[in-house]
C-alpha cells in the first residue's frame, strides 16, 4: 500500500514541480542570506518547517484524493484547464498549484534580491510587490 502511494506521488506532475520549486527556493534563499550577511538559523528553520509542512499537506491531500476521488476541476476557469491539459484535478493537485505559485513568487523575489538577472517587467513587478506587501526592498 505504501509503495503504491509513493509511486502515485512520484508520478504526480504537480508534486514534482513543487518539489523542484522548494529546492530552488531554498538554494536561492541561502544565496540571498549569504549575500546580505544575514544567515539566521531560526529563519532557516522556520522556512524548512513551512516547506516540509507544505509538502506533507500535499501528501495528506493525495491520500484523501485516493480514498474519496475528489475532483475540483469545476473550480478552475476553463482556459487554465486547457492549459494544464488535465481531466481530473484533486485537492492535492489544486493545493500543489497554489503552493507552486507561492514558491514561484518567492523564487522570483530571491532571484531579484540576489542581484541575478531578471526581466525588467518582472523586476518592476517584484519591486512594487515588495514595497506594497513586505518590508523587503531590493537595493
What does this structure look like?
The protein is an all-alpha fold. The chain has one domain (2-133). The chain contains six helices and no strands. It starts with a helix and ends in a 6-residue tail after the last helix.
Structural class assignment = mainly alpha
Percentage beta strand:
under 5%
Report how far apart the termini are. Answer: 52 Å
Q: Major sheet: size, sense and barrel closure? A: none
Overall mean pLDDT: 84
The number of distinct structural domains comes to 1
Give the overall silhouette: globular
Query: Which blocks of ≥5 consecutive residues have pLDDT under 50?
Result: none
Count, helices: 6
Q: Tell me the Rg in angstroms.
A: 17 Å
Order of helices and strands: HHHHHH
| Fraction of residues in helix | over 70%
Number of strands: 0
Topology diagram in text:
Blueprint: H1 2-10, H2 13-35, H3 41-68, H4 78-84, H5 91-114, H6 120-133
Helix pairs in contact: 2-3, 2-5, 3-5, 5-6
Summarize the structure.
The protein has helices spanning 2-10, 13-35, 41-68, 78-84, 91-114, 120-133.
What are the defining features of this structure?
6 helices; 76% helix; mainly alpha; 139 residues
